[in-house]
Automatic annotation (TrEMBL):
Domain comment as written in the entry: Contains large globular domains required for ATP hydrolysis at each terminus and a third globular domain forming a flexible hinge near the middle of the molecule. These domains are separated by coiled-coil structures.
Residues of the full protein shown: 1 to 202 of 1151
Coiled-coil intervals, chain numbering: 170-202
Organism: Salipiger mangrovisoli
List of residues binding ATP: 32-39
Family, similarity comment: Belongs to the SMC family.
Protein name: Chromosome partition protein Smc
Subunit structure: Homodimer.
Intracellular or extracellular location(s): Cytoplasm
Annotated function: Required for chromosome condensation and partitioning.
Length: 202
């Protein structure tokens, strides 16, 4: 799976529709201070399901919507679309029936976020799992923000291990295991309740 295109509308400083072609290999973003380099990286994390406003440098998630500047009024929504080439058919099951995937996240003021994959409504969790299974996502070590290299060098072994696990592609399995544990706990609680009811009836 290869990222091929990123489209932003009303996202942070990208008020006008902006289309970026992502070429093969390593991509670096350069430009003067304040031109929106970090905003671009955040858009990529955001469309992959980032749900922490702090990671977007905001107090609330609606802070990603263009807030207005000079003569331009604030926008009511922000949208980011990420196109992925799935010609090699490596997308996780459920998303693997097309050569190209377009993941769209839109946030509307007072409404919240909505996600689509190839124009079909999906849940945030579906998008997060899609990227986790493909060994990438909002927390992927492949997205290197400013200062991250020195953070990595100074990181505690536990944080460094998390990065290695992401790179090894097992973070999706951890998420699935966690969900399975939650289901197991619920089922055990239900069984206890059934035992209680049977005891009362006996
Ligand atoms: P530096 O090199 O200094 O780190 P940068 O190129 O990474 O800068 P960003 O931090 O991506 O730049 O962009 C900062 C700009 O984005 C600022 O001008 C800020 O006002 C603008 N900005 C951030 N959020 C919004 C928003 N919601 N609406 C409008 N503009 C925004």
């Amino acid at each position: 799976m290869q990222f091929t295109r990123l489209r932003l509308t009303g996202f942070k400083s990208f008020v006008d529709p902006t289309d970026l072609v992502i070429a093969d290999g390593l991509t670096g973003v350069v430009g003067p201070n304040g031109c929106g380099k970090s905003n671009l990286l955040e858009a990529l994390r955001w469309v992959m399901g980032e749900n922490r406003a702090k990671a977007m440098r905001g107090a609330g998630m609606e802070d990603v919507i263009f807030a207005g500047a000079h003569s331009r009024p604030a926008r009511n929504f922000a949208e980011v679309a990420l196109t992925i080439d799935n010609g090699d058919r490596l997308a996780p099951a459920g998303f693997n029936d097309q050569d190209q995937l377009e993941i769209v996240r839109r946030i509307t003021r007072d409404v919240g976020s909505a996600y689509k994959v190839n124009a079909k409504d999906v849940r945030a969790r579906d998008v997060q799992m899609l990227f986790a299974d493909a060994s990438t996502g909002a927390h992927s070590p492949a997205l290197v923000r400013q200062g991250q290299i020195s953070e990595l060098i100074n990181a505690k072994p536990k944080s460094r291990r998390r990065i290695l696990e992401e790179a090894a592609g097992i973070s999706g399995l951890y998420q699935r295991r966690h969900e399975a544990e939650l289901k197991l706990n619920n089922t055990e609680a239900n069984l206890l309740r059934v035992d209680d009811v049977i005891e009362q009836l006996a």
